[in-house]
Amino acid sequence: MGPIENQPEQGRLAFSMLGVGYAPGVRGHGLPRVVAFHKPRGVVVSRVSERGAPTLFMLLPAEFRGFYAVGRLDKDSEGLILLCNDSRVAQRLMDPGVLPKTYLVTVRGLPSEAALDRLRAGGMELDGRKTRPAEVRRLGKAPRGGTRLEVVLHEGINRQIRRLFHALGHRVRQLKRVAVGPVSLGDLQPGELRELSREEVLQLLKEAGLLEKRGKLGGQEV
């Protein structure tokens, strides 16, 4: 199905969801709804419980339980998960390289710059493919002989950060996703959520290459 363009009506934005074919009418402005949720540790991103663990969807208000998770976080990690009410948009947002994902990571020990440079250079093998270059910034020491780092990934491989640091000889003690593209976790506490504003959804779709600018809304260029 090709792109479906919304027609301007009563000041509404005309736009084209590139390659998605998204129909207008959600919340009166023709955009998908997106929710930011702080997944707690111990919760799985699945509709089916694994070994009795609570699922993300069990924690959501009924209004959002039909939304689709944009990507995953493993059970032992916490942080930002986006959810979208349109499965096609959610799938496009998950495509490798579409949106960078930022993590705060605490590892055991003190990784050398040479070790971190291996992550920055990419080319480490996981699941039969070479990893893309990652952005890695050392933030400082952590309690009990650990190191705090910021890691930005441009792809999605299962348990990628944990497996890469394990290969470097440093076990991950704590992992928290703090941003997906332009959307940050902010001050959301574990188990809390907020719905993105219209402006935030527009920015998210633009950065993902899903939104084609077609006009103005309320006299302001978008």
Explained architecture:
With 222 residues, the chain is of the alpha+beta class. 18% of the residues lie in helices and 31% in strands. Strands 2, 3, 4, 5, 8, 9, 10, 11 and 12 form a 9-stranded mixed sheet that branches. Strands 1-13 form a two-stranded antiparallel ribbon. Strands 6-7 form a two-stranded antiparallel ribbon. A hairpin with a 2-residue loop joins β6 and β7 (129-130). It starts with 14 loop residues before the first strand and ends with a strand. Residues 1-28 and 214-222 have low confidence and may be disordered.
Report the radius of gyration as a whole number of Å.
Answer: 19 Å
Care to count the β-strands? 15
**CATH top level assignment of the largest domain:** Alpha Beta
Mean pLDDT rating: 83
Provide the CATH topology of the largest domain: Alpha-Beta Plaits
Proportion of residues in helical segments: 10-25%
The CATH superfamily of the largest domain is known as: Pseudouridine synthase I, catalytic domain, N-terminal subdomain
Structural class: alpha+beta
CATH architecture call of the largest domain: 2-Layer Sandwich
Q: Helical segment tally?
A: 5
Structural shape:
globular
Total number of domains: 2
List low-pLDDT spans: 1-28, 214-222
Distance between the termini: 25 Å
Order of helices and strands: EEHEEHEHEEEEHEEEHEEE
The main β sheet shows up as:
9 strands, mixed
Beta content comes to 25-35%
